[in-house]
């Protein structure tokens, strides 16, 4: 970007240069209200801004350095409402000087090189969105949080946060997107989460969470309805225009960004934890879910038949648990499934017949005792794998075989027990022949005597 453009004496009301290939450094933005420089190639430290600026979007560039100058050493936060600096090269700790940012309600610092803990002053902001995903931050979340009652999106995924999942999350009654994925959280899932009636996307995957799956999940109203009224997730207003959120979600094993359809997506991912117990049948009340992932836990018991009520389900992953019993025959009603995995459990019986379930590869069913298409293993008329049904007769046959084997072994050992010493030891062999000769002579004398 030419320096003369930024040094023009005229002050801009708004500046939007997003989605270009502009490059270079920017030291100062003489813009009164809003700036959008996203998706360019700008480098260097973050620019200073005019004190009345309300919206600053610098996403997807190569800005580097610290947040300190922008956050602490200027009056830029006095009126700023929206601050997006995600997908840059910002490093260091988040400074603890957010007290004068009283109007800020959208903060996105995701996908940088930030480290350290979340500063106390940041928790005191009344935010609608807080996105700190994909950094190297750590520490525990505070046990209480009074502010941000209107929080809609809370994303701390892909960091090193630890401790319990805080119960105060259940007090954020407007929360629609909660992602704590890929951290070191432990303890149980707090039942207060069940109070989040607007929650559409819950991602607690890849942590150390233990305990059981709460039965009260059936109270998550937004997941229990099939009527989606908004394509977008609304976050507030700026210049009388609506602001809608974007979010990165992991569905069907793939991470994608959702924006214009985010309001239509409902998902729950509790995979790769240490959850125990059975899958509660109440989970089947979440008929609006499009994606459900409970894989890589320690879940036991049968797959609840109630899951078949979730007829809009597109992705279901229950793999790598300790589930037993059959795949419920009613799963044939899941006509929208395009991702399905129950591999590496203790499931038995015949795979239900449906257009969808037979369309998946064998990998979806490996590590079980299942039979029927798409597997090559056939079933008996009772739905039992043929190799299992023949297991009893094969055992009986093995007993008969062992009988013959034992007879042969006895003969061989007896034979060689007598013959081998005679063959290899000369003194034994001579003694044996002399004994036979002596016995032969006696028999001959006895026979001759009897004949006379």
UniProtKB/TrEMBL annotation:
Keywords: Cell membrane, Glycoprotein, Leucine-rich repeat, Membrane, Receptor, Repeat, Signal, Transmembrane, Transmembrane helix
Listed GO CC annotations: plasma membrane
Chief location: membrane
InterPro entries: Leu-rich_rpt, LRR_dom_sf, RLP23-like
One matching Pfam family: LRR_8
UniProt xrefs under Gene3D superfamilies: Ribonuclease Inhibitor
Compartments in which it is found: Cell membrane
Superkingdom, natural source: Eukaryota
Transmembrane segments: 402-425
Membrane topology summary: Single-pass type I membrane protein
PANTHER family the UniProt entry points to: LRR RECEPTOR-LIKE KINASE (PTHR48063), LRR RECEPTOR-LIKE SERINE_THREONINE-PROTEIN KINASE FLS2 (PTHR48063:SF48)
Stated family: Belongs to the RLP family.
Protein name listed in UniProt: Leucine-rich repeat-containing N-terminal plant-type domain-containing protein
Organism of provenance: Gossypium tomentosum
């Amino acid at each position: 970007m030419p320096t003369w453009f930024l040094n023009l004496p005229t002050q801009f009301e708004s500046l939007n240069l997003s989605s270009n290939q502009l490059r270079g450094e920017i030291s100062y933005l003489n813009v009164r209200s809003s700036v959008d420089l996203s998706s360019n190639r700008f480098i260097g430290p973050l620019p200073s801004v005019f004190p009345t600026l309300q919206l600053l979007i610098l996403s997807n560039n190569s800005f580097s350095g610290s947040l300190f100058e922008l956050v602490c050493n200027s009056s830029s936060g006095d009126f700023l409402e929206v601050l997006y600096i995600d997908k840059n090269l910002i490093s260091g700790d988040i400074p603890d000087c957010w007290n004068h940012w009283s109007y800020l309600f959208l903060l996105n610092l995701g996908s940088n090189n930030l480290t350290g803990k979340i500063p106390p002053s940041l928790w005191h902001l009344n935010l609608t969105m807080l996105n700190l995903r994909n950094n190297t931050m750590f520490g525990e979340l505070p046990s209480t949080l009074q502010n941000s009652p209107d929080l809609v999106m809370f994303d701390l995924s892909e960091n090193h946060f630890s401790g319990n999942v805080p119960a105060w999350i259940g007090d954020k009654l407007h929360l629609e997107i909660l992602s704590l994925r890929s951290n070191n959280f432990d303890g149980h899932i707090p039942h207060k989460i069940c109070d989040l009636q607007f929650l559409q996307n819950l991602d607690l995957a890849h942590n150390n969470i233990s305990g059981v799956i709460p039965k009260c999940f059936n109270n998550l109203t937004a997941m229990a309805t099939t009527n989606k009224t908004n394509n977008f997730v609304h976050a507030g207003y700026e210049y009388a225009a609506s602001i809608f959120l974007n979010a990165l979600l992991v569905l069907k094993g793939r991470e994608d960004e959702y924006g214009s359809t985010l309001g239509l997506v409902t998902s729950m991912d509790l995979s790769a934890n240490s959850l125990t117990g059975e899958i509660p049948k109440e989970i089947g009340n979440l008929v609006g879910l499009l994606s459900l992932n409970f894989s890589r836990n320690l879940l036991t018991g049968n797959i609840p038949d109630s899951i078949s009520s979730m007829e809009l389900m597109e992705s279901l992953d229950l793999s790598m648990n300790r589930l037993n019993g059959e795949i419920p025959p009613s799963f044939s009603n899941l006509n929208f499934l395009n991702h399905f995995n129950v591999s590496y459990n203790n499931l038995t019986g015949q795979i239900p017949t449906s257009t969808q379930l037979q369309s998946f590869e064998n990998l979806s069913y490996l590590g079980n005792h299942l039979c029927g298409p798409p597997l090559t293993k056939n079933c008996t008329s009772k739905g039992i794998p043929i190799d299992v049904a023949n297991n009893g007769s094969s055992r009986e046959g093995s007993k008969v075989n062992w009988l013959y084997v034992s007879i042969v072994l006895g003969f061989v050992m007896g034979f060689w027990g007598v013959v081998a010493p005679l063959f290899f030891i000369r003194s034994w062999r001579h003694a044996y022949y002399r004994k036979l000769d002596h016995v032969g002579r006696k028999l001959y004398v006895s026979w001759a005597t009897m004949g006379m």
